[in-house]
Amino acid sequence: MAVSKLKIVLAFVGIYLIWGSTYLAIKIAIDTMPPFLMASVRFLTAGLGFYAVLMLLGHERPKKRHWLSAFIMGTLLLAASNGSVVLATKSISTGYISLLIAMVPVYVAILEWLQNRKEKIEKLKICGLVLGTLGIITLIGPQNLLVPNGINWFGIAVVMFGSLSWSVGTIYSRKVEKPSSLMVGIAMQMICGGAVLGLVSLIMGEHYQIANLHVSMNSVLAVAYLIVFGSIVGYSSYLWLLNHVSPSKVSTYAYVNPIVAIFLGWAFAGETISAQTVAAGAIILASVWLITAGKKKEETAPALCRVMETTSGKQVCGAIELASAGSTRSSL
């Protein structure tokens, strides 16, 4: 039976708008909450709740070796990557962050080449790498490159570290054994990532702030939004789409999310949209398109899309494996 077009449209709206809005939600959440503590609560709540529901529904329990791989992926894809986004939101705009994260496919392309230098890099990819570098320089501003206090270098470095961590996690995820249920694997990663973020929160001494915290209702609602919509609804929409439309169409969210994030930051957080930001955004998104254009021919190849069996017998394409074909998410 053909899938309803309305369902497909609604799923795309989910990954376009929900994922694009998570940057603003993070900004609101950490306005009155310690950043790493907030991120830990978000992923632990979503992961534990999701895992419990899946077990009640009869999904196969994961093996011990699956927890080890989930811990590594949760650390790389969620703790380091999302933790970097949360920390950087304190110092730079959400629009900047979303554009810097849009460079993930560029980093993945570089890592893939470093892994197998015998393969010749396609001309489109080379152009994409050059454009991506130019886009970063444009975003930062040539005038700020030689001025120490011209821009918040710490925030930029933190986001780029998080993007690199997501890229390394993407490469790593292709080689490890995962649970038979993709959903269970995602829940495990959220649990492990949330636990690591909680440990970082303790090391940073954020627990000393709890007694004097005055958490606003806006922050509470923002965290609830991130848990329900950002981590569960948005990602479920993403997985559902991978099972019903081509990965190249699904990956278009990589170009829409930064636009949504920049607009929402301007509309609700008072962030400015300069001509320089617009130009940098256009260059970066063009570089991402060039990097991912060469992937479209490979989408039907079994090597790119390892099929996982769910307990219901349906087949889904490993979501993390397709991250190199256009994923820019580090915030889920």
What are the SSEs and their pairings?
Layout: H1 5-29, H2 35-56, H3 64-88, H4 94-101, H5 104-115, H6 123-140, H7 142-145, H8 153-173, H9 182-203, H10 217-242, H11 247-250, H12 253-268, H13 275-293, E1 307-309, E2 315-317
Describe the overall structure.
Helix content is about 65%, strand content about 0%. The chain is mainly alpha-helical and about 325 residues long. The protein has a domain at about 35-210 and about 275-325. A two-stranded antiparallel ribbon has the order 1-2. A hairpin with a 5-residue loop joins strand 1 (about 305-310) and strand 2. The longest helix is centred in the last third of the chain and has 26 residues, at about 215-240. The model is unreliable at about 300-330 (pLDDT under 50).
**Roughly how much helix do the residues carry, as a percent range?**
55-70%
Terminal CA distance: 30 Å
Provide a count of the helices. Answer: 13
Instruction: Output mean pLDDT.
Output: 81
Q: Label the overall shape.
A: globular
Beta-strand proportion: under 5%
For the sheet with most strands, the description reads:
2 strands, antiparallel
Number of beta strands: 2
Sheet/helix structural class: mainly alpha
How do the strands line up in the largest sheet?
1-2
Radius of gyration: 19 Å
Query: What is the H-and-E element order?
Result: HHHHHHHHHHHHHEE
Poorly predicted ranges (pLDDT <50, ≥5 residues)? 298-328
